[in-house]
């Protein structure tokens, strides 16, 4: 995607013109000028197509006007009856692929305020993401040709200011998408930790813990997962200090299994290549920290990610092993493919011991069971705190990263009772995503008062198999916008 420009309204001399139109519209401003310039072809074309400006509607008019007109196409997109930021963003995302083949595109947002103009641009930016660094023979006709994208608005300075924090969020989303898209031979724990260093340019303090230090600290559960791979484990601590000096930080924790074979409990071969995105929870936390720092959020935030590779080998963890976690609790490993919860157990404990955050939210591609339950439309939400759960659900709805709250309870907790250790890492097939959450909850320390905690199982939402308005097929970056919205709406000073 090229840089987005905010300019004063003027009818373009060439390229494509995008018209965002609300339901019941009357052509005014640039839209009316364009209609006049092409001899009323816009009015006639929209009427013939039955375009009413409803959400989800679009209409393309090809080469309107006579041979003296150099506008190659006019694209109308619907904003709905009551345009809002979310609708403008979605319309922008829907418009982008309709004009991506054009070198120059002008969007007539002179009928929208600065906030809606910025939202429309944000939607176009999100949809314009591509991960093509390994394509060496892509046909020229398949490459995007857009080199200049201008939004025509009477308030370019105000729109530019409104877009600035959205641009920071887009950067965080793209960072997460890039990490999830990388192949596992390129992105392994040490490399992923190194890439976190890029956040230092935004003012984030980045600290990387290596195996010797992790061993000394007592990360027995996490290191148990990592011991089968020649790729060494890492834990990365990222701190943003934008709030009051003595204010407790918000705590964001991510599972970062850069490739998951299942270990000794090896997965079937079919589809195993998808396990490169078993680090999507960690990628979301890294992206969220980039977004929070990029827009200079007035909050203290700490992001921690546990990075391992889960491989079968002569040194790999075995079913039946017992490991001691950082919390001191012991875990009987029944299934080495239930490894993410072991990683989170130690990282959650460390986050609490060192930072005692205001709350903790962990994100993980934890279970296939959550996909069986919720498909790819919602991520699973588990929480010990109603207020935090409600805040997360509302934030998710606001950015189209939807959550569905799932139950927790003693009956499920009994399923992970072990005969020889404090707990086992799986509780059988029934309620698999719930027993995974119950396991993680055992590492939420409530000795000094209740620690608000939420677990997001994003296994079904980390990767898209088809295009959506603001999410092209592939890595979604799910969780970045959700966490940023949660912080922005409830936890900034």
TrEMBL record:
GO terms for molecular function: aminopeptidase activity. Belongs to the peptidase M17 family. The lineage of its organism: Bacteria, Pseudomonadati, Pseudomonadota, Alphaproteobacteria, Acetobacterales. Keywords: Aminopeptidase, Cytoplasm, Hydrolase, Manganese, Metal-binding, Protease. Binds 2 manganese ions per subunit. Residues 335-342 form the Cytosol aminopeptidase domain. It comes from the Bacteria. Its EC number is 3.4.11.1, 3.4.11.10. Mn(2+) 2 binds at residues 255, 260, 278, 339. Presumably involved in the processing and regular turnover of intracellular proteins. Catalyzes the removal of unsubstituted N-terminal amino acids from various peptides. It is an enzyme of class 3 (hydrolase). Mn(2+) 1 binds at residues 260, 337, 339. It holds the Pfam family Peptidase_M17. Its cofactor is Mn(2+). Its main location: cytoplasm. InterPro entries: Leucine_aapep/pepB, Macro_dom-like, Peptidase_M17_C, Peptidase_M17_leu_NH2_pept, Peptidase_M17_N. This is Probable cytosol aminopeptidase. It catalyses: Release of an N-terminal amino acid, preferentially leucine, but not glutamic or aspartic acids; Release of an N-terminal amino acid, Xaa-|-Yaa-, in which Xaa is preferably Leu, but may be other amino acids including Pro although not Arg or Lys, and Yaa may be Pro. Amino acid amides and methyl esters are also readily hydrolyzed, but rates on arylamides are exceedingly low. It is found in: Cytoplasm. It comes from Teichococcus globiformis.
């Amino acid at each position: 995607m090229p840089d987005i420009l905010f300019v004063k309204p003027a009818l373009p001399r060439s390229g494509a013109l995008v018209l965002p139109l609300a339901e019941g519209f009357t052509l005014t401003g640039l839209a009316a000028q364009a209609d006049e310039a092409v001899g009323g072809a816009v009015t006639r074309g929209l009427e013939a197509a039955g375009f009413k400006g409803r959400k989800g509607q679009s209409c393309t008019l090809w080469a309107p006007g006579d041979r003296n007109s150099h506008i190659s196409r006019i694209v109308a997109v619907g904003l709905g009856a009551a345009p809002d930021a979310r609708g403008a963003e979605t319309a922008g995302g829907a418009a982008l692929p309709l004009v991506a083949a054009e070198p120059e595109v002008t969007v007539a947002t002179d009928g929208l305020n600065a906030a809606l103009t910025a939202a429309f641009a944000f939607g176009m930016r999100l949809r314009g993401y591509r991960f093509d660094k390994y394509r060496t023979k892509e046909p020229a006709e398949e490459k995007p040709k857009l080199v200049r994208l201008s939004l025509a608005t009477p308030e370019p300075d105000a729109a530019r200011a409104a877009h600035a924090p959205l641009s920071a969020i887009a950067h965080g989303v793209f960072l997460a998408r890039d990490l999830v898209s990388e192949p596992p031979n390129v992105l392994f724990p040490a490399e992923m930790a190194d890439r976190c260093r890029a956040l230092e340019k935004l003012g984030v303090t980045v600290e990387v813990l290596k195996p010797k230090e992790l061993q000394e600290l007592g990360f027995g559960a996490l290191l148990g997962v990592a011991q089968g791979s020649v790729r060494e484990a890492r834990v990365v601590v990222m701190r943003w200090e934008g709030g009051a000096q003595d204010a407790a930080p918000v705590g964001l924790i991510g599972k970062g299994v850069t490739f998951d074979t299942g270990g000794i409990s090896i997965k079937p071969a079919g589809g195993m290549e998808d396990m490169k995105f078993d680090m999507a929870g960690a990628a979301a936390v890294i992206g969220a920290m980039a977004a929070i720092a990029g827009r200079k959020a007035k909050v203290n935030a700490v992001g921690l990610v546990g990075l391992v590779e889960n491989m079968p080998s002569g040194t790999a963890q075995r079913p039946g092993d017992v490991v001691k976690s950082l919390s001191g609790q012991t875990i009987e490993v029944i299934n080495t493919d239930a490894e993410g919860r072991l990683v989170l157990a130690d990282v959650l404990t460390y986050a609490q011991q060192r930072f005692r955050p205001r709350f903790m939210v962990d994100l993980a591609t934890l279970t296939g069971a959550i996909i069986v339950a919720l498909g790819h439309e919602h991520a699973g939400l588990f929480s010990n705190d109603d207020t935090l759960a409600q805040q997360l659900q509302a934030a998710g709805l606001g950015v189209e990263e939807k959550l569905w709250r799932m139950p927790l309870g003693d009956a499920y907790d009994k399923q992970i009772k072990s005969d020889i250790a404090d707990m086992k890492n799986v509780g059988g097939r029934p309620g698999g995503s719930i027993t995974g959450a119950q396991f993680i909850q055992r590492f939420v320390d409530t000795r000094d008062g209740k620690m608000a905690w939420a677990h997001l199982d994003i296994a079904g939402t980390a990767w898209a198999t088809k295009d959506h308005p603001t999410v092209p097929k592939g890595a979604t970056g799910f969780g970045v916008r959700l966490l940023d919205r949660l912080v922005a709406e409830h936890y900034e000073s």
